[in-house]
Amino acid sequence: MRFFRYMVLALAVLLLEGCTCCAYLNHMFNAERLYDEAGELREARLDSIPEETDSSPGLEEREKYDKVIEKGSRVLERFPNNKKRTAEAVFLIGESFRHKGEWGKAIVKYDEYERYFADYDSMRAVEYQRAYCLYRNHEYNISRFALEPVIASKNHPYYFQGLNLLSLLDEQSEFPDQAIAALEAVLADTAGTPFMRGKAHFRLAGLYYKKEDWAKSREHYKAKEIELLNVRERQTAGEQAAECLVNQKEYLKAADEYKELFKNPDYEQKHPEYLVRLGEVTLMAERYPDAFIILRKVNSDYPKTQYASRSYYNMGDYEQQKTLNYEQAVVYYDSSYSSLNYCDWGQKSRALSESLKRLIAM
To answer: Nearest 5°: CA angle at 265, between 259 and 267?
Structure first.
């Protein structure tokens, strides 16, 4: 009888442990599934915007991260003494807060992870992500301090991302030369992946552009690794490379590059902008008949838009400044205003038209 009681007790313990294990697996399985689903929504959102653009999660994405935090918190409540399980939960919670843009809460979780789970696999990711969240939370000095273990060795899996973050910190500290040096270090190291090199070229090009070093900026925008970046980044690189030529007064070369951008089917949404800019650059090159052909195409292909308004404005400016034909300039300015009266080009055209009409009347 006593033996039977022991057997029942042992069986009950095994069943209880099994249920506990199942409960943990259920919570973590759901948390990881929700995290992956939220990640897919996040990737789709970020693919549609430039990298430097801030973008908040949509409602569905945010709700999934909230559920990850909820599931992870239950694991922490129910299994406080199991370090492996709680480490996984703390990391997922911190990552969810980061993806939601709740930088302060993410930092708290990353600090908790280092305090209790520094020997676990995700610690290397935590080191970088905490520094990044501190940067996004405008705690630049602390972020730089937190970044030290990441950039101390090239063996760190986030070493190149760390150099990129260091360049952002230097940029915020108004030390563009230090930011440039950090990114040049990425390019100088042959261990960097082609994709990371493309990212470095893109950032460097932007920094040189701010310094008005058009030649260096263009060199990086035209680097071969830029082709590995997403569509929006490649598009921006093409535009800025052409503008570097404009700033160097190489107008015909710039016009040729805008023609190529206009022909690219991946950039179809910006075709009207490229066409009107092509007309403007051709005007700068003093190819006036060709420029007017392009600008008239804008007017016919995209009527009643900001592009037509901008096109007519440029035609009016040409007649006012180059030919001194004020009557014709007024016609073009009025057409600019009627194309889209509330845009900047229409408003500027209206003011210039009224001024010229008063001048003509005198």
So the answer is: 75
Residue ranges of the domains in the chain? 193-244
Gap between the Cα atoms of 156 and 309, Å rounded: 53
Residues 6+ apart with CB under 8 A from 125: 91, 157, 158
* Spatial distance between the Cα atoms of 80 and 16, rounded to a whole number of angstroms: 17
Fill in the DSSP letter of residue 325.
Answer: -
Question: 81 by DSSP, 3-state: which?
Answer: coil
Alpha carbon 12 to its chain's center = 55
Contacts of 101 (CB under 8 A, 6+ apart): 56, 57, 136
In this structure, the number of other CB atoms found within 10 A of the CB of residue 44 comes to 11
Query: For the purposes of burial, counting CB atoms within 10 Å of the CB of 94, is it exposed (0-12), middle (13-18) or buried (19 or more)?
Result: buried
Q: What is the model's pTM?
A: 0.63
pLDDT digits (tens, 9 = 90+) for 78-105: 877 778 888 889 999 999 999 999 999 9
